[in-house]
Amino acid sequence: MGDWWQRNIMEPGKLPLLLALTAFVLTFAITRVITRLIRAGKGPFGNVKAGGVHIHHVVPGVVLTVVGGFGAVAGGRHGVWSALAAVVFGIGAGLVLDEFALILHLDDVYWSEAGRKSVEVVVLTAALVGLVLAGFTPFGVDGMSQDELQDRANVIATVAGNFLFSLLALAKGKARLAIFGVIVPLIALVGAVRLARPGSPWARRF
Question: Residue 69 sits in which domain range?
């Protein structure tokens, strides 16, 4: 385990990315729990207001993302500062993308059907970052055996093929299947082979 950690996480400098992803997912999950408690009127939490204005959590999220992003650029890929900056960035990104639908529509659609776009974007973001951690960009790992190189090539080919199916499903208007298909193989294939939704880019083109 120690050798795997050193070769796949520490050596290529992926620890900040792992910390950012962990902070991102945990922040999103915790934020969703808290907002549901606020909506239900349970727990010690409540909406934050300043001068009668409801402060959405995307606001501190933007601040943390900026601070963490610049901190990560300044800190490089190694060291305590880069790890701390990665966590700050992950927390900020989680808060921002949890309200992605609000930014997109410029309206408070958090609990509406349109608000599901936030969840979809968060899942897609976590999936893509997870692919990077899993070796989709394996640069920086030295001394790999031929078998390891072959295994990694097979993984990359499989992921690339699945990603193409996801793009096809998205073009056919199957957004949810496309997003979850990035994570779970064959789900995107279902969306890719099914008929396109009326009005989708695929239907308009073909």
Answer: 1-111
